[in-house]
Amino acid sequence: MTHLFFEKPILNSPYDYPSQHWELDESGQPTQKIIPSRRRAEFITPIPKPKKHKAQHAQAELDIGEEVSTEDQQYHSTIINGVRAEVDKWRTISNPSDWGVTPETARLLQHWRYHAFSGVRPFFCQVEAIETAIWLMEVAPHKGKAAQKFVEHLQNANEDANPGIMRLALKLATGAGKTTVMAMLIAWQTINAVRHPSSKKYTRGFLLVAPGLTIKDRLRVLLPNDVDSYYKTRELIPSDMMGELEKCKIVITNYHAFKLRERIDISKGGRQLLQGRGGEALDTLETEGQMIQRVMPELMGLKNVMVINDEAHHCYQEKPLKFEDLEDLKGDDKKEAEENNEAARLWINGIKAVQRQLGLNRVIDLSATPFFLRGSGYVEGTLFPWTMSDFSLMDAIECGIVKLPRVPVADNIPGAEVPIFRNLWANISKDMPKKGRGKAQGLDPLKLPTKLQTALSALYGHYEKTFALWQIEGLRVPPCFIVVCR
Questions:
Q1: pLDDT tens digits for 399-443?
Q2: Which of 19, 230, 238, 471 has the highest CB neighbour count under 10 A?
Q3: How far apart are CA 362 and CA 190, in angstroms?
Q4: Torsion 373-374-380-381 (CA) sign
């Protein structure tokens, strides 16, 4: 049997509405049949079956596509598909005056959809993401019951999970260009805020929160005056609107900055001396207001700030864990859950502080995986219920936007029930060095666990063959070999 999906997965242009997709069976396996329509939003992942599996239970643990197939997920799929259908109908309206948006928004939509870009052009999935946000915030509230039910779903989902904060999650596969969507959001909000200063729908103040320094640095392109600004280098707005855009205030930070810092540099002994025996503990931490002043001084004069979360799956309001859930978490899993919750708590509490001190317009979450993490109090892998748009990994593969991940399926260790490579970490974690990266001077890369070396060699063998074929064809850019680690 041929494996056309794995040999030629690309079916659609990245710039046009997806018109066909590969059919998957109930277990997420490609049937090799092409369906002449867009794929519905469903939470399944096509993981090839192993060529050897003596124990059914072992395979069940490895089928990633089955981890999130719950009734809740099916309900969220219905919501997302419903919003997509409404946005599809709205997109086909030819007269901009009938779109139900401001003239500024209509101008930007026309630019993103039809402008003759001289260089990099927005992907369809990027335009669809901003269209979804615009439809929900500008169009749906005035569209009648059919549209209002989605607005109410969003409100109810946030009331349950994020009381007092209105969040909207846009799901885009890694590599689909979330940064471009952020730029579109900033342009849409700022230009409308400047031209409609009395409206509370729009803002020109933005707090961009990332999980780490690397991502934070990458987001510089969202600053209008940056030398590599996307608004100029990628022609993301009409040139005559740059004047309004430059009136925006943008702060880019990482969530760690929300942690209250010590105001006084004092030693432990000095603290005990000042406190005295039996005295009250010294309160030397900065206040919430001082933290806001430190992290985002540029936004202090503004109200109604919009927060944009990058890799937003790290930010959630945890639910208290039940005793039986705590009992299920042990060792590394328990430690991982505690670290997840500590990070999520700091992040969401920082946003709450912004709400109290400055006021929030809305929180926009961007992530390829807006799912609750282990230990959050929710079932691991449950989609954030305020997710209203989804361009999945499968969509991105079929549109030629991202690479096709490879998962080992063949036998590699005689007598094993399931190919070891399919769950490599579980088989090598005990043999890996315990030292952290900062203490790794004495570690020898040639003394890696045999199973790990074998796995790398097997996967690299495929890359090596591809490399040779590309050279024969005269391709100047080599194929890319990426190893994804735990």
A1: 999 877 665 555 445 445 455 666 777 778 778 776 665 666 677
A2: 230
A3: 14
A4: positive
**Are residues 351 and 463 located together in one domain of the fold?**
no
pTM (predicted TM-score): 0.83
> How many folded domains does the chain comprise?
2
Structure-block tokens of residue 459: 């996967």
Same-domain status, 412 and 394: no
CA–CA separation, 53 and 42 (whole Å): 26
Same-domain status, 241 and 310:
yes
DSSP assignment of 166-202: -EEEEEE-TTS-HHHHHHHHHHHHHHHHHH-TT-SS-
427 falls within a domain:
yes
pLDDT recorded at residue 49 = 53
Burial class (CB within 10 angstroms; exposed 0-12, middle 13-18, buried 19+) of 283: exposed
Domain for residue 295, yes or no?
A: yes
CATH no. for residue 363? Answer: 3.40.50
Angle value at C-alpha 434, between 428 and 439, nearest 5 degrees: 135
- Distance, in Å, from the CA atom of 427 to the CA atom of 451, rounded to the nearest integer, reads 8
- 440 with 458, same domain? yes
Return the exposure string of 381-405: e unless at least 16 CB atoms fall within 10 Å of the residue's CB, then b: bbbbbbbbbbbbbbbbbbbebbeee
Examine the fold and report which residue of 348, 370, 398 is the final residue of a domain before the chain moves on. Answer: 398
Residue 245's nearest CA partner among 305, 199, 204, 206 is: 204
